[in-house]
Amino acid sequence: MFPVSQLFNAGRIITFKCGKLTPSHLWWFCSFPCHSAAEVVRKGAAKKQVIKKHTKERTPCQQVLDVFDQQYSQDLGDLWASARSLLLDPRSWQYGVMLNRFTAGTDVRQILQSQGFSMFLPPTEVSTRLSDASEKQTGKDSLMSTRGISTCPPVDSHPQCDSTSHVLSQDLQSELFLTSPRPSLQCYIHPYPLRFPSQPHRPGQLKQYYLLNAASLLPVLALQVKDGEKVLDLCSAPGGKALAIMQCATPDLLCCNEPDPHRRNWLTKTLESFLPLSQHNKVIVSAQDGQCFGQSEAVTYDKVLVDAPCSNDRSWLYSSSSQQGEQRLKERAGLPTLQTRLLKSALSLVRPGGLVVYSTCTLSNSENYAVVETVLRDCPEAEPEDLWEEIAIPYSKHFAFGPPYPGHGQTSHHRLGILVVPQPGKTWGPMFLSRIRKRT
Fold first, then answer.
1. Is 238 annotated as belonging to a binding site?
2. Is the pLDDT of residue 164 over 90?
3. Is position 303 annotated in a ligand binding site?
4. What is the DSSP letter of 232?
5. Which of 65, 96, 152, 176 satisfies CB 3.0 to 4.6 Å to 161 for a cystine?
6. Are 387 and 369 in contact (CB under 8 A)?
7. Parallel, antiparallel, or unpaired: how do β-strands 350-360 and 431-438 relate?
C-alpha cells in the first residue's frame, strides 16, 4: 500500500480517471501468457455442439420491427427488403476476427486460414520480435498477483477516490517491460457467416483475438490515428474500437470515456484482456458525461471518436420483451438530441486542424446524416470530409453502402458520411460514419 503520488511516479500503470484528466485513482493490469487458440477453438466447437441442442431461435420484437419497416422503407428504398431479411436471420450475420498485435498469433492465423478466413485489411509491417516477446512474457506470470482491477465511483457519487492501490514494484515492471510490436491492424473475415469461437475473460491473461462486426473498424480507419497523438474515445464501452486504435498506432494518450458503471466495468475488462503492461501508461479510463466532457478538460486532443449511443438495429430488433422494445422506442426520439450534443462536445475537445469521427450502428437517417447536418449548421468551425473514395470505394468488395441522403440541399451526401447496409453476401451489421475536421 503506497500513497497515490508515489504510485503515480512509479511508472507504467494505467490510470482510472474520475473527473478531470489529472489522475485521481490508479489501477493496474498484468501481462500474462495468452490463451491457446487451438484450445479455445477445440473447446468452442465442443460447446457449440452441446448448446445447439438447447438454444431456441431468436424471435424479433414486433413493435420494433413495425417502426423499422415504416422508417427504413423510406430511408433505404429498395435496399430495405434485403436488409430486413438479413437482420431477421442472425445465423446469416458475419463476424470478423481482429488479431491482437501484443500476442504471438501464429497459431490463430493458421487456424483461420485453414477454415477459409482471409485478411480484410492489407497487412502492415509487424515487428519480427513479436514471437520472441511473447516467449519472454511466458513464465513470468507466477511472479505476479492475479487480483482484479481497482476502480473508483463517478465524481458525483463520492467526493474523493481511495488514495491507495496495489501495483507491481518498479523493478518487476522494468523486468517485464516488452518492446511493443509495430502497429498493425489485422482482421480476418470469412465469405460466409462462420463465427469463430470467442475467448473468455480471464484476469491476468492476454487474449489473442477479438470478435467484432468488421464494419465497426471503418470509423477507426477514418480516424487516421498516428503514433504520438492524443486520442479520445468519447463513448468507449465495450472497448472494441479502443482496442482497434491501439492496434493501428501507439498514441501518446488514449482516453476511454464511459459514464455508465456497468459498461465501464465491461470496458475495463476488455482493456485488461488485450493490453500488455508496456502500454498501460498510455491509457486512461474516464467516467464523465460525454455531453459536457469539454467543460472540465484543459487537454485538447488530436483525434476524437464519437461512437454514439444509438438505436442499435441488431440489438433492438431482438429486445427481450415487448415491454423492453416499447421502452427503447420511447427513448429513441431523444437520441438525435443526445448524439448532437456529443458531437458538439467532441468538436470543442479537438484541436484546430484535428479530426472528429462520428459513428453509429443504426440505419436511421435521423441519427446519422441529420445529426451531422445539425452540427455543421450550428458549428462554423466544422468542415466535413468526403469518405467515399477513401473508405467506400476501397472496401466495396466487402460492404454494401447506402443510397444518397435526401434533403441535404447542395451538400453532397458523401461529404456528410457513408452508411454500411446489410446485403446478401455482405451481411455485416449497419454502420454509419462521418468525419469532420476542425478548421484552423
1. yes
2. no
3. no
4. E
5. 152
6. no
7. antiparallel
Q: Where are the alpha helices (DSSP H) in 335-431?
A: 335-349, 369-378, 413-416
Q: Are strands 187-189 and 25-27 parallel, antiparallel or unpaired?
A: unpaired
Look at strands 187-189 and 96-99 and give their pairing: antiparallel
- Residues annotated as part of the active site: 361
All cell numbers assigned to 181: 510490436
Q: Regarding predicted confidence, which is higher, 184 or 242?
A: 242
Residue 105 counted as an annotated binding residue: no
Spatial contact of 432 and 418, defined as CB atoms under 8 Å apart: yes
Of 58, 94, 68, nearest to 363 by C-alpha is: 68
pLDDT in tens, 231-244: 999 999 999 999 99
What domains, with CATH codes, occur in the chain? 2-54+88-153+161-438 (3.40.50.150)
The answer to whether 77 is annotated as binding is no
CA distance 31 to 173: 10
Q: Are 198 and 96 in contact (CB under 8 A)?
A: no
Q: Are 423 and 83 in contact (CB under 8 A)?
A: yes
Q: Which letter does DSSP use for residue 383 in this model?
A: E
Burial 201-218 (b: 16+ CB within 10 A, else e): eeebbbbbbbebbbbbbb
- Please report how many Cα atoms fall inside a 13 Å half-sphere around the Cα of residue 20, on the Cβ side: 7
Q: Is 239 annotated as a binding residue?
A: yes
Q: How far is CA 133 from CA 174, 183, 210, 296, 345, in A?
A: 14, 15, 20, 39, 40
What pTM, to 2 d.p., does this model score?
Answer: 0.79
> Alpha-carbon distance 273 to 192, whole Å?
28
Q: What is the Cα–Cα distance from 128 to 270, expressed in whole angstroms?
A: 26
Per-residue pLDDT at 153 exceeds 90? no
Nine cell digits for residue 302: 488530436
- The strands making up 209-212's β-sheet, listed across from edge to edge, are 118-119, 187-189, 96-99, 209-212
92: helix, strand or coil: helix
∠ at Cα 42 (36, 44), nearest 5°? Answer: 100
Say if residues 30 and 144 touch (Cβ distance below 8 Å).
yes
Quick one: how far is CA 182 from the chain centroid? 20
**CB contact set of 314 (below 8 Å; sequence gap of 6+):** 87, 90, 93, 361, 429, 430
Question: Any binding-site annotation on 289?
Answer: yes
